[in-house]
Design a protein that fits this description.
mainly alpha
């Protein structure tokens, strides 16, 4: 096969990042509009309860089959792969019935006025999940044959239709917000499924014409046709019937034993992963302490607070992980490795620790004075009237600080642990996660929604201590001290403290009369803090400046 799998993977990853940002932006805008015009309760039902139902059904019914089938194309026949992926449809039907029953009868709603729309929403989500898995077969083929641009086009179409349908109905009648969510869910998924089959019908019909050189199109440019059809000799599908399940004489011939066992293994992992990924929402749904209004408030604040993690810390962690895996060997002790690489990696770890911990401290300090301003601009006066959103965002700023440190220290630990240490840590991670769920459930009774953030901070502190213990042991007996980067400079801390006090004074004296003046004061003080950090870390700043300057010179010379 002549397709470039590496380039396809990179393109897919890049487009995924872009669409994550696009989807988040659209979601933030819609959420802000719903908060201002519809209400918190409806947003809580949509974003916590109904979307949790969707992710539960899809993850448990799609993920095991999809992960098992990927990478098996060269070892297992296409007919067996298609048969296997189609099993996700009956599984989703069974899971839909089970979870819809749980969502309707066992999870408290507490809002009789929303009962009909809530039931309609649960069944609509279940139908949309089954519909989506009707295209799991063609989506798998598209992924394995690197139809990256097809996925981009359909993702764009999905976001567009979902947004237009939802806003059209809600603008017509605000009381039908849950109905609008349900219609948008089913309508957008149905369109995507239909589009997949239409594309492959067109593709299969025109493939023989392209081979003969007779395919001409006014709609599709020739360059795109070349990319679609070149190096596709192994594309064995000649009809849409080939995408349907087929009985191959016996059950043993129709399904592959290795694929079945692999699917079951991924299913077991999927249950644990789903509990850990959506743990907070499950606790919210089960716990009677938090109302839907509080759930919606927590969800909005959590999304706003996690922007720093997604767009700042995550790229730093990903780049650092790749760097450390290349510089430090997992299996060899440090004394037996190239000392120049060890020294360089130690310096980089120290500098990255200092950078992210400094960013975390800035967010923590400025967040105490500007959480109310941000939420006021986002959701309006009525959204912050209770004071809970402001308290949540201020608390979340503390979680961001611990998140920053945990991300880098755990990243280094993962990049340099031996296989045995990794296996041991996987069990420890499960223990951390289960403890987090139990702690979250208990602390919500004590602190309300803030209990989630408190339990998250405790969880991250425990993981940080474990990573610090691992790094300290790794460098024990050497002259390297990479964890010194966690100690930020005195001038920076003093400037940050003064800036925090002045920002709090500005919030109390100026923000009520002029938000613009309050924001201006914060911007000036932030500039002073950054200057202080730059002065105290001028060697690092100069080094980064030289690297950027040299890179620009190379580009210009080319």
């Amino acid at each position: 096969m002549g397709r470039n799998l590496l380039m396809s993977s990179l393109e897919n990853a890049s487009f995924n990042i872009i669409f994550q940002i696009l989807f988040r932006c659209i979601t933030f805008v819609i959420n802000a509009w719903v908060i201002r015009n519809v209400g918190h309760e409806v947003l809580g039902i949509m974003n916590v309860r109904l979307l949790l139902l969707e992710s539960t059904i899809l993850f448990l019914s799609r993920e095991p089959f999809n992960r098992a089938c990927l990478g098996q194309k060269d070892e297992i026949t296409w007919k067996q792969l298609i048969n296997q992926i189609w099993l996700s449809v009956p599984v989703s039907c069974v899971l839909s019935i089970i979870f819809v029953y749980i969502w309707l009868n066992l999870l408290p709603l507490g809002h009789p006025e929303h009962a009909f729309q809530y039931a309609f929403g649960c069944w609509s989500v279940a139908i949309s999940c089954v519909l989506e898995l009707l295209s799991a077969n063609v989506a798998l083929v598209a992924q394995l044959f690197c139809f990256v641009k097809l996925k981009v086009a359909l993702d764009t179409l999905h976001i567009f239709i979902r947004t237009v349908l939802f806003l059209s109905i809600v603008i017509y009648d605000k009381s039908l917000a849950l109905i609008a969510f349900s219609v948008a869910q089913v309508g957008s998924i149905g369109t995507i499924v239909l589009s997949y089959y239409i594309f492959f019908y067109w593709y299969i019909k025109n493939k023989p014409l392209y081979a003969k050189g007779a395919l001409k199109s006014k709609i599709v440019p020739e360059s795109i046709l070349n990319k679609l059809y070149d190096n596709m000799d192994d594309f064995q599908f000649t009809s849409l019937k080939d995408f349907l399940p087929q009985y191959l004489g016996t059950v043993g011939a129709s399904f592959n034993k290795k694929l079945n066992s692999l699917t079951i293994s991924f299913a077991k992992q999927g249950v644990v992963k789903q509990l850990l990924t959506e743990g907070e929402k499950y606790v919210m749904s089960v716990s009677p302490v938090m109302s839907f209004s509080e759930q919606a408030t927590y969800d909005v604040v959590n999304n706003l607070g996690s922007l720093a993690a997604r767009f700042i810390f995550r790229p730093i962690e990903d780049s650092s992980y790749f760097y450390f895996t290349q510089m430090v060997s997992r299996e060899l002790p440090l004394c037996k490795q190239d000392q120049s690489k060890i020294q360089e990696s130690c310096t980089v770890l120290s500098q990255v620790c200092k950078t992210v911990s400094s960013i975390g401290l800035i967010v923590l300090v400025f967040g105490q004075s500007y959480a109310r301003t941000l939420l006021l601009l986002y959701g309006g006066e009525s959204f912050i009237a209770s004071g809970l959103p402001v308290l949540l965002l201020r608390s979340h700023c503390l979680a961001i600080f611990w998140l920053a440190i945990n991300g880098v220290t755990e990243c280094y630990a993962f990049a340099t642990m031996t296989s045995a240490q990794l296996n041991s840590y996987n069990y420890l991670m499960v223990l951390f996660s289960i403890s987090f769920l139990v702690l979250s459930y208990v602390l919500t009774y004590v602190f309300g929604p803030v209990g989630f953030i408190v339990s998250n901070c405790i969880n991250m502190i425990a993981r940080i201590l474990h990573s610090i213990h691992f790094i300290s042991n790794k460098y024990k007996g050497t002259d390297y001290k990479p964890l010194e980067g966690l100690y930020v400079g005195k001038i920076f801390l003093l400037t940050l403290f003064v800036a925090g006090c002045l920002c709090k004074i500005s919030e109390n004296r100026l923000s009520r009369d002029s938000l613009l003046l309050h924001i201006t004061v914060g911007a000036l003080l932030l500039f002073c803090v950054l200057l202080a950090w730059g002065y105290e870390n001028r060697d690092l700043v100069k080094k980064m400046y030289r690297k950027v300057w040299i890179k620009e010179d190379k580009v210009s010379l080319d």
